[in-house]
Amino acid sequence: MTQKQPAARIRRSPEQVREAVHQAVIELLSTPEGEDLSIPAIAGRAGVNHTSVYRRWGSLDALLADTVTTRLERDSPLGDTGTLRGDLVAWAEASVASMHTPEGRALVRAVILSMPSSTQEQSERARHFRRRMRSIEQIRERAAARGEVPPPLEEILDQLIGPFYVRAIFGIDLPATGYPELLVDRLLGGASGPGPA
User: Is 50 a residue whose pLDDT tops 80?
Assistant: First the structure.
């Protein structure tokens, strides 16, 4: 199999470098041969100096977490459906669709590989998790503004987000149809109606 050659190093903006590094992570994670996933390998594929990657991210775990969060934010645009249930179902369906793509599977692998092993890494992971949850918080805020009663973030995490990632991590297929709607309806349990005046 022909290996992709490392990108040539050219002058790029910080954002272009970040995108190139993220793309290199995805490509390396997607290779069936299981290529070495290290900062030097990522830097070589992205066409940047490995010292620049260390300066910006500090560790491979931090780079993987940033890649996952940034790509999921990009792939999960928020749309206002007009109801809490509709917004949550749309968010869940987009997440499921993403997990079925080669990039989505690579992102799940990145989540597994970037498990924090120190207090500093745990703090960094928490920061990226808060970024990922912004879209859910926006859904909750819109619902509250409409007079609906959104469930706490912890319940959304446990009952809606968690099941998707458990299945993805352990390779358990999702039901053919209706799984996002089923989880959302179980989560809401009648709590999506107007709140008290």
Answer: yes
| Lowest-pLDDT range of 74-83, 124-133, 168-177 | 124-133
State pLDDT tens for residues 81-100.
999 999 999 988 888 887 77
Among positive and negative, which fits the CA dihedral 83, 89, 93, 99? Answer: positive
Question: 130, exposed or middle or buried, with CB in 10 Å at 0-12, 13-18, 19+?
Answer: exposed
Q: Are 181 and 163 in contact (CB under 8 A)?
A: no
Rounded CA-CA distance 176/17 in Å is: 39
Beta partners for residue 148, in sequence order: 194
Q: What is the pTM of this model?
A: 0.72
Do the Cβ atoms of 76 and 95 come closer than 8 Å? yes
Predicted local confidence at residue 41, as pLDDT: 92
Distance CA 190, CA 187 (A): 9
Torsion over CA: 159, 165, 168, 169 (sign) = negative
Please give the distance of CA 189 from its chain centroid, rounded to a whole number. Answer: 26
- Decide if 54 contacts 62 (C-beta within 8 A): no
Q: Tell me how far the alpha carbon of residue 14 is from its chain's centroid.
A: 22
Distance of CA 121 to the CA centre of its chain: 17
